[in-house]
Description:
This protein is of the alpha/beta class and 659 residues long. The N and C termini lie far apart (79 Å).
Amino acid sequence: MPQEQPSSKHSFAKAWWLAAILLVVYDLITIALSYYLALVIRFETFRPDGFGGYAPGLLVTLKYFPVLCILVYFAFKLYNSIWRFASYHELMHCIYGTFLTIPFHYFLLTFGYGRMPLSYYVFGGGLQFGFLLFSRFVYRLLYLEFSNWRKRQLHGKKALQGMLIGAGAAGQVILRDISTSNLAEINIRCIIDDDSTKWGRTLDGIPIVGGRDDILKSVQHFGIDRIFLAIPTASREDQRDIINLCQETGCEIKTLPGIYQLANNEVSLTRMRDVQIEDLLGRPPIVVNTESIFANISNHVVLVTGGGGSIGSELCRQIAKHQPRLLIIFDIYENNAYDIQQELRRQHPDLNLKVLIGSVRDTHRVEQLFDLYHPEMVFHAAAHKHVPLMEESPCEAIKNNVLGTYKVAYAALTHGCRRFLLISTDKAVNPTNIMGASKRLCEMIIQTMDKVARTGDISVLPHVTSHEGSQRSTLALAPDAPHTEFVAVRFGNVLGSNGSVIPLFKKQIAEGGPVTVTHPDIIRYFMTIPEAVSLVLQSATYAKGGEIFVLDMGEPMKIDTLARNLIKLAGFKPDVDIKIQYTGLRPGEKLYEEKLMSEEGLKKTENKLIHIAQPIEMDTELFLRHLDELIAVSATNSEEIREVVQRAVPTYHPEKKGT
């Protein structure tokens, strides 16, 4: 049987100990040599008998002092640093390790032998420090010179020619990482920075050639292949503008996710990532009051319906960080539910988590859930969201979105849930498609439930047990039952969600195009999933019942611009490498989405990005009659469902398709 080879880990450990032993031997020799040379310098002779009678003192030094220094060096970890990465930290340890030993040396000789010349301590200590620095930093110097030599050899062959944008603290760290990394065959040729006082100067020998206006010219002049953005402190607007300029170069672009990395000393080459579409939103990152969210969720039982979806799963991630007593994930699709379950178990091993499979359309399953776990907060994210698909199956949109919302809200009301929050959409405003109309109906259900919760008389509500029909509830809320606060949060498209156009565009780009855009002028509001969910959680802290919260999503973006940016981020040229094809508006699709209906007004909250829409007065009794009709017609899968929806939602105008 062949002999087992030692592991690479064992080999590295062996090499480290060998290097440490060699350094100890070197230090013992050079410490003794330093003080011998100190007397040589003082008396200008190499002969000990010419040292003016101080040779016995030198002998005392040679016997004891080097060993004392080695112990001090060990205390300052001068034998286990990785010296090819030596920096300020290691330099300070060398200084402390050397000059702490000098007083020891003075007292050792004074009490063990007698006084020595002052020059002995000055020259000896200086030489000791010099020998120490030489041994520790000469390796780093030689390593850097070898790396630079390799890059010069690779210039024009394999090395990537790089540009660094940002001559600040983050840029300096990235530049150093590139210089010392074995994995990065990158030759940084120039640096860009908007601070004109830095122009014409150098950073680690690399010229700072100008500001953002010089990007295109410098890329061409230096033959740049890759651009590194190290500007985490720049505003989102500035970052967007610089990224747009970089996209025009056709170079690969790498960036740092955010300023928090600089604050946490997490800036490094390995943490740089590809530029993402979120970087082009051009607005400041959204900030929420995490303390109020924590107080709202901590030690409560929280239910998230549709918890495996893009919005629902992010809700679960952020809720898990705020220590709920129990987090319940309820979803019909077991694969998504399983994925978020495993993720939360890895990241939050102490989280009390329950994952349940079921449909919001199943009355008995919903009632069972509330009977067993008594959720105190419900985030209702379960819904059908694809506009074209719902146009083809309108009754399914009503069954799932409207009746599913009603059944969960009814269970929350009758089981004393403290707060119910509906995830709505800007497509609910003046809807031209059945999905948007179904979401408007959900908002109307929330407003109705809130009115009933305030009166305590639930006999007016139909108790929907199946799609075949309903009956009036015979229940009544107990006088001391908790008052359920029903609210809705309305926002636009979220980047990367299951219903977003982003995954479709990326797939089309990967297949070589064309990228299909319905209309060159179609615009949408966009927000990242974490941003949208953080505002949803913040909205829940403002809830008093009956509100429709409207999130400020900044300036809208053209879908055509979005598609072109994605093509550029993939390293292609729009209409050259990847064609853009306009297919025409789909059934029920509008050129733009509205945040408010004309009857609604906005009230401010503490967070300037969260507003409250003034509720539209509605006839509750009439709405409930329409709801009965919707239940009956959707159960038959009748094509008349659109007419029934129109009667229930006066702002729904399906005849305006494509406008």
